Amino acid sequence: MAGFDFRAGEVLLVDKPLNWTSFDVVNKLRWKLKNKYGIKRFKVGHAGTLDPLATGLLLICTGKKTKISQELTSENKVYTGTILLGKTTPSYDLETDFDSEKDVANFDWDIESLNQVAKSFEGEQMQVPPIFSAKKVNGKRAYESARKGKEIKLEPNKINIEYFNVDTALFPKIKFEVKCSKGTYVRSLAHDFGQKLSLGGTLIELRRIF
User: Where along the chain do its domains lie?
Assistant: First the structure.
């Protein structure tokens, strides 16, 4: 990694592997940089968080560049992924087991109607985060209470979805690409998309590409 000055500050584009947390990436890089420079403390942080079940672009800041992490987080993001219609989970993704299922074989659908439903999510709106999220409720992360089976109520956030394009070729698996603002939970988008179709939906694949 010649030519990089990590102490002065760098912004690294990391392709986060599946099942790694964003903190796993930060900790691994921090350990390597501490050994490289022979110091006990080294500033490393991430701009935005990717769920363990998501892959793709994770921005890592080192040294003095950690001061601009909030600026980088505010940028719109682009994701691709897959929604499975007809099944739901409490976490809205595959972190938890399926808890409901509907027969999609007799669902009367066509490409145009599904595209129209997807387009209805574009623009500014209020979105409720998943209860299995890092949102804080009474000082605790929501997922900590959710995993204990406690009832949680999360307040909606204002978000903006610039576009939400779907590919129905593999129905009931719906491939998609979405460009959205900071604070958008794609898991909630997948859940809400399924709810609007009266089928339910689960996010089974997610990758950040920009």
Answer: 11-73, 77-208
